[in-house]
């Protein structure tokens, strides 16, 4: 089985390296030549274009920043689904919205191809370690066919349902997590204004009902004013936008998500786009 | 040392029983006779009015629902600070705002009395077990004088600073926690709309950056639609109001706290006041 990987940056790169280490025959492509080199150090080979890859792989992993990048690659601009061999499978690990996932899934079906939407639960560190949670969506029989392979690059593979459920789940998880980050920033700043030292404040909050994964993960960034991402403001804004938009499609109100979107937009406008999402703290200074 | 307890309901009652079990000479008062009876089963004695208690105790614990109840008791309506013996100490364990705490602290000083603001970190269960975190504020020497006594009713006593810091800290902790609750409700409902079963959704979210103390504590209430408080919508609304108001005093914006206040107000208006704060979930149905 030959595997192709398009997009081998922070997230896709870790997956590609783990596939190679697990003994698979892996071909990679990325517009960033440095990202490709970082994979080739471990093994595998590279191609010069997505089209070149399409015809030669049984499974194609994609990891791209935006839903539009993915539809351009697979259906529109490059349209490489048309060049893939019937019976082969696309496994996307990007964070995309349910509507785009459905569009790709249907386009794949029409060409006799299989599709799984497999958004990832954590960050680049876990992708590299092979401990990245995978939330898989698509036809159950396709998942069953690939479960053992996914287990080679993840210690925690979950079958969520169809592609809509898997992609919605990932976005919902980010919607909660990233909104919790701003809620935290707002109050951490308030505590400082009341003269409570930041480190002491965070340590005490962890003993109360205010405790959260984001307090543990992003509290130290705020404390040290060190905002290397992690998960950037730009990506956060993108995901929250997808969340608010997919909720709108179902007439489901997301007042807190919408307010969070406003603040991350403001952070981006203030030049914080490439900093970690915890940098929204600066908006409260 | 004789200790008085005014307000022996869910929180104050647990503290009073622990003081009695620790061997202190305890006198209690509450407008709710049943609450008083639940203390007397363990020991201690009761008086018929706060005034009667004021002159006979060395330390007065107060645990009341609203800041106004406390100022009425101590300064205005009942004004029992005037009846306390010079050198005695008031220890308030209610959740009050920094401004009220300062007012009481100054009023106590003027009468030769001591004051500690000691808001509590968790719920009635911890008050009863004696594992209730205490966040103490006031003069350091007063805290030092009472630390060993506070350790009898709490396994985790923290000195925060002056009364403003301790009371602000407690409110900030609730502001984060209770806002996280609505953020969670908004997204849990969105997940259900996408056809993800609630229990599965919560279990998976706990493996992501969406995890929080509130997911663990209130997720099951939402799952089982069982909203016995816990911490009621009414009390939540009160605390968030105090938080937004104390932030306004410092010109510090709390857009998420303000939005949360709107939703808990709406929940109260919908007749959910006596249900657990997790019942805001119903606003998204």
UniProtKB/TrEMBL annotation, chains A, B:
Keywords from the UniProt entry: NAD, Oxidoreductase
SUPFAM superfamilies, per database record: 6-phosphogluconate dehydrogenase C-terminal domain-like, NAD(P)-binding Rossmann-fold domains
Gene3D superfamilies (UniProt xref): N-(1-d-carboxylethyl)-l-norvaline Dehydrogenase, domain 2, NAD(P)-binding Rossmann-like Domain
Pfam families on file: NAD_binding_11 (PF14833), NAD_binding_2 (PF03446)
Record domain 6-phosphogluconate dehydrogenase NADP-binding: where: 2-161
Domain 3-hydroxyisobutyrate dehydrogenase-like NAD-binding: 166-283
Superkingdom of this protein's organism: Bacteria
Stated family: Belongs to the HIBADH-related family.
Protein name: NAD(P)-dependent oxidoreductase
Organism the protein comes from: Fodinisporobacter ferrooxydans
Lineage of producing organism: Bacteria, Bacillati, Bacillota, Bacilli, Bacillales
């Amino acid at each position: 089985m030959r595997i192709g990987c398009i997009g081998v940056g922070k997230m896709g790169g870790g997956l590609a390296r783990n596939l190679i280490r697990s003994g698979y025959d892996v071909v990679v492509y990325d517009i960033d030549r440095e990202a490709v080199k970082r994979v080739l150090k471990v093994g595998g080979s590279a191609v010069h274009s997505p089209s070149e890859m399409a015809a030669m792989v049984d499974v194609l992993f994609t990891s791209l920043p935006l839903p539009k990048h993915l539809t351009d690659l697979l259906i529109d601009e490059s349209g490489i689904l048309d060049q893939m061999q019937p019976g082969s499978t696309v496994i996307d690990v990007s964070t995309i919205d349910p509507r785009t996932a459905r569009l790709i899934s249907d386009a794949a079906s029409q060409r006799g191809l299989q599709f799984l939407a497999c958004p990832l639960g954590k960050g680049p560190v876990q992708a590299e370690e092979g401990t990245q949670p995978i939330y898989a969506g698509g036809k159950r029989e396709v998942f069953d066919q690939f479960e053992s392979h996914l287990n080679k690059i993840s210690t925690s593979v979950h079958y969520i349902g169809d592609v809509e459920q898997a992609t919605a789940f990932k976005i919902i998880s980010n919607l909660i997590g990233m909104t919790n980050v701003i809620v935290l920033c707002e109050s951490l700043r308030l505590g400082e204004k009341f003269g409570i030292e930041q480190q002491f404040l965070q340590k005490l909050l962890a003993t109360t009902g205010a405790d959260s994964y984001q307090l543990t993960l992003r509290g130290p960034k705020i404390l040290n004013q060190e905002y290397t991402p992690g998960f950037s403001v730009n990506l956060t804004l993108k995901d929250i936008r997808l969340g608010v938009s997919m909720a709108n499609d179902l007439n489901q109100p997301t007042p807190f998500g919408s307010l969070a979107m406003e603040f991350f937009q403001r952070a981006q406008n203030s030049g914080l786009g490439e900093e970690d999402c915890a940098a929204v703290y600066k908006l409260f200074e």
